[in-house]
Design a protein that fits this description.
heterodimer; A: 325 residues; alpha+beta; Heat Shock Protein 90; 2 domains; five-stranded mixed beta sheet; B: 119 residues; alpha/beta; five-stranded parallel beta sheet; 43% helix; 22% strand; globular
């Protein structure tokens, strides 16, 4: 970034100052006794005042140049971050591509029939490869939110369809634990939003609800219009968390209890990413819970006419969020 | 005579994987491990479809496509990419008549099979 020359105001001030000093010098050369004249004293005071203004403007100019240099450096760091993300994304996803495809080919008998034990083994490897793929995507999403480079494709959507689709996709996982999911849809107006990203939020909330629910539990999903905002809530009957633990759940790599990270697989990125997505839509997300008595994660979205500006996150610096309710 | 699919990717394992899928679907396969090798061989191979990796070392994808336009053969191209395109980027890509679609890596076997069945 180019740092500009002296501002026009500062240049005019310097020229006025030089002209004034010249004029007073000429006056003094004509009549040396003029120094005792009250008008001359006043003029000298004015020059001193003008000198102060020039000094102030010079200082402002210096500060402006420094700020511009810092902005240029930050911009450069941001571009580097973006490049690093692209490279990381490429290098991490590329090896997973042949792993996944070859496992799927094996399971589809491309290389001859497998027996049941071999199939189970391959299915397990494939499941883990897919899990790894999702983790990479989540880590990249956290980085994108921090760099302010996450892409949002705004369009007018029916949020109920997005919610229904997420509920359907989580059903097989819920059925494995004999968990029932009830969706209580309200009347919702069309919403300007990124359907893919909001699906991601719903999938994260529902996956968490299933993951932390006891077998045979119940999950309730509700959506309604409230004060010109759409309110969506996912309520589970799971293990819950204490009120003090809630804020850190919205930060990456944190489950409430570190021992849970081992008991319930995952990096603890879902809520952090969901917060980033919801807040980029101009909304907010929060959790209400008590240890042992389940949790309700809610988010609200404003009915927007135009997409909001892209927001950058600093997950590791800001202590806010979580206690919204 | 069966159709020919040209697989262009700098990753040997991905070339081998895609080639296996293509052959298993009953198509012929030709391969290239970079943009220049592809451009040098495309007129000779006369493929019915090209699976072109994005972000290979050497020639940029847009340059490969620009040079392909000046060749005597104009096969449809499917971009295979780890980059997630935005809607705006997809619309820009669609302005290039050679591009008929794109597949995200890591891809599913089903996606490739369905694509080949449409080829």
């Amino acid at each position: 970034m180019n740092v500009g020359p002296l501002s026009p105001g500062l240049l005019v001030s310097i020229l006025v100052l030089i002209a004034s000093l010249g004029a007073f010098g000429f006056w003094f050369s004509l009549d040396a006794s003029v120094v005792s004249h009250p008008l001359f004293v006043l003029a000298i005071l004015l020059v001193i005042f003008w000198l102060g203004i020039v000094w102030h403007l010079l200082e402002k100019n210096r500060q402006l140049r420094e700020a511009m240099k810092k902005m240029a450096a930050l911009e450069e760091i941001n571009q580097l971050k973006d490049q690093l993300l692209t490279i990381t994304s490429h290098e991490l996803r590329t090896p997973i591509t042949p792993i996944k495809a070859n496992l799927q080919m094996l399971l589809s008998d491309y290389f001859g029939p497998l027996n049941e034990t071999q199939k189970k083994s391959i299915q397990m490897v494939l499941r883990n490869a897919e899990h790894l793929d999702r983790l990479i995507e989540d880590i990249l999403d956290v980085s994108r939110l921090e760099a302010g480079t996450m892409k949002f494709e705004y369009q007018t959507i029916d949020l109920l369809e997005t919610i229904q689709s997420s509920v359907q996709s989580i059903q097989p996982l819920a059925q494995q634990k004999n968990i029932q999911i009830f969706h209580e849809p309200g009347m919702l107006p069309p919403l300007l939003a990124d359907p893919h990203r909001l699906s991601q939020v719903m999938n994260n909330l529902l996956t968490n609800a299933v993951k932390f629910s006891h077998p045979g539990g119940v999950i309730r999903v509700s959506s309604r219009l409230e004060n010109h905002e759409i309110l969506v809530a996912v309520q589970d009957t799971g293990i819950g968390v204490s009120a003090e633990e809630i804020p850190k759940l919205f930060k990456p790599f944190s489950q409430a209890d570190t021992s849970l990270t081992r008991r319930y697989e995952g990096f603890g990125l879902g809520l952090a990413i969901s917060k980033g997505i919801v807040e980029n839509h101009g909304g907010s997300i929060w959790m209400q819970s008590n240890r042992g008595s389940g949790a309700v994660v809610s988010f609200k979205l404003p009915i927007l006419q135009v997409p909001p500006p892209l927001k950058r996150f600093s997950f590791f610096d800001t202590p806010k969020t979580g206690g919204h309710a | 005579m069966s159709k020919k699919i040209m697989v262009v990717d700098d990753n040997v394992d991905i070339v081998e994987t895609l080639s296996s899928i293509v052959r298993a679907q009953g198509y012929q396969v030709a391969t290239a491990d970079n943009g220049q090798a592809f451009l040098a061989d495309v007129e000779n191979q006369k493929p019915d479809l090209v699976l072109l990796d994005v972000m290979m070392p050497g020639l940029a994808t847009k340059d490969i496509l620009a040079q392909l336009a000046s060749k005597s053969v104009h096969p449809p191209v499917v971009l295979v990419t780890v980059v997630r395109f935005s809607q705006a980027e997809i619309e820009t890509l669609q302005q290039n008549k050679a591009i008929v679609g794109y597949i995200a890596k890591p891809f599913d076997l089903k996606t490739i099979v369905e694509l080949l069945q449409k080829a």
